[in-house]
Structure prediction request, 287 residues.
Amino acid sequence: MKKVTGAAAAMVLLSGAAAFAAQPTPWQTDFQPAATPIMESINWFENYTLWFIMPITLLVLALLAWCIVRFRASAHTTPSRTSHNTLIEVIWTVGPVVVLLAIAIPSFQLLTAQYTPPEEPALTLKATGNQWNWDYEYQFDSPLAFNSAILTDDARAQAGKEDRGVYPRLLAVDNEAVVPVNTTVRLLVTGSDVIHSFAVPAFGVKVDAVPGRINEGWFKATREGIYYGQCSEICGKDHAFMPIAVRVVSAEQYQTWLAAAATDLSGANRALMAAIDAQNKIASAGE
Ligand SMILES: [Cu+2]
Prediction:
């Protein structure tokens, strides 16, 4: 009986962890799980290009091996003096052109989609990179703005973020950007001092933060959870210590948070964390 309870508890823990899966894991070789349609397209495109890369690599390897063995000096004492072969020259010109077209067309389509929101975004979030933290601004008539910096180990207890599975060291922040699920968010990115880059792998988003210039992107997160990224443009001494954390929540949770955050950000964050904890408990009890 005890074993069964233990196993059930482990299942709950695992499923609880799975809800927050979008962060790096030890020995990870693949992308983080996709949380937006764009990242799903990037995953598809990666697998698609592998279908070209693998056969080409194997073909070149086989040709090299064959030439090395078949035409070695001891076995092939009188080399051919052939200098042209029209057929083979046409093949090795047309073949790569066809391969490049087959890669370029979906690649350009994906690139276009990454900069073209499918609908008018319901929310505009501006991220400003600073040495070495981020400012977020929710652009409404009366904008909500706050700073988001790395969560230090001694601030964990105070912030109620002691679970290192959910709030990993070097990725967790004091104030996450909060966005509603299934909502197209326009992302404006700039820098205040040097060039930074706003990157969230699970969203398939990476936008350079250039001082004096505003770059635009978008994302539509389709799964609730907390998603981590990092500054991806080397920007000085603490480049590695300016993580990005985006919390994707239900529309109601977002509205409640937004209303409270205008006057009391840390109170709003705490209330949101409590609401999410309660929701996860109900979800894991129901499994
Ligand atoms: Cu940076």
About this structure: The first strand starts at residue 123 and ends at 130. Residues 1-18 have pLDDT under 50 and may be disordered. The CA atoms of residues 192 and 211 lie 5 Å apart.
